[in-house]
Amino acid sequence: MSSEKNLLEVTKLRKYFPIKGVKGPGVQAVQDVSFFIRKGETLGLVGESGCGKTTLGRTVLRLYEPTGGKIVYDGNVLYDNPLGEDGKPVGRTLAANMLPYRRKMQIIFQDPSASLDPRMTVGEIIGEAIDIHKLASGKGERADMIKELLGKVGLNTEHANRYPHEFSGGQQQRVGIARALAVKPEFIVCDEPISALDVSIQSQVVNMLEDMQQEMGLTYLFIAHDLSVVRHISSRIGVMYLGSMVELGESYELNRNPIHPYTKTLLSAVPVPDPQLSRTRQRIVLEGDIPSPMNPPSGCRFHTRCPYATPRCSQEVPVFKEHEKGHWAACHLLES
Ligand SMILES: Nc1ncnc2c1ncn2[C@@H]1O[C@H](COP(=O)(O)OP(=O)(O)O)[C@@H](O)[C@H]1O
Ligand code: SF4
Ligand SMILES: [Mg+2]
Predict the structure, then answer these.
(1) Which domain holds residue 66?
(2) Whose CA is nearest to atom 1 of ligand 2?
(3) 265: domain CATH number?
């Protein structure tokens, strides 16, 4: 169950990737994104491929160094470099030593085969995580922990002696999850953990992650490119477009009453089980390609594809703000 307390607070987080030999800010992958996650809840994060979900997840963990903004974890400032009036970070960076947080904050990757060292056995992979954080007092305890973790994710003790390539994709992802759980984390970025898996086993892995959450009181940032995946497991959902968070709200509310034009188009593509809702919902097809984050459109980044765009949209960046209780969005249409 989620509590009222925020575990993570992210304010105007920005991540640009400079490009060698090219002047300018580079790839503007995450543009001033703000949100919080309550203790014990799952925040779903959706958006098309390339919109910055992975970059946001990794920057929150400081696996990528932010370009600007603020990250507060459980009341502790992990990073603070506010943006000045001109939109540039002021440069007074406060960056915490991440060592204590490396255990508490974990990540599960999209591609399990690429994230497991092929030269290490499954036991060594899980054991390494235990060793780094000195969580076992001796060989016996370490072996017991590995055995227990394998059981938790539905694998056998004998699996500890095998190599990643001997497993199916679903089993590899179970190993990745066991490795993340080995260090008794509090917060996990689940970066499209089921996108690379067979449809037949996707729900098993999702159910397992939900069980673990209950059992260990975990908090998740659950990334998916498809709303249908996150809507059942998330208490709230954030929607990204070209590096910006365009809308965020309670899962039920966002699905029932999306207020941002981009979310409306995303939802129009998802089949709805409710026949009444499905009759009122028209399928909206977006025209044009997603622009490049190296050279994003001015003003509202969605203006080149938005069916409702006005001249103001290409000139002014819409502010991301709370329009109804717990329901945020960034769109000039909502201002009047
Ligand atoms: N290490 C990197 N260097 C340069 N550009 C990157 C890097 N990682 C991601 N990008 C770019 O940042 C944008 C967002 O990527 P990503 O966060 O992977 O999106 P998503 O996870 O939503 O598919 C893309 O344009 C991608 O090409
Ligand atoms: S600000 Fe303008 S372009 Fe952006 S979503 Fe709203 S109406 Fe569309
Ligand atoms: Mg990604």
Answers:
(1) 6-335
(2) 331
(3) 3.40.50.300
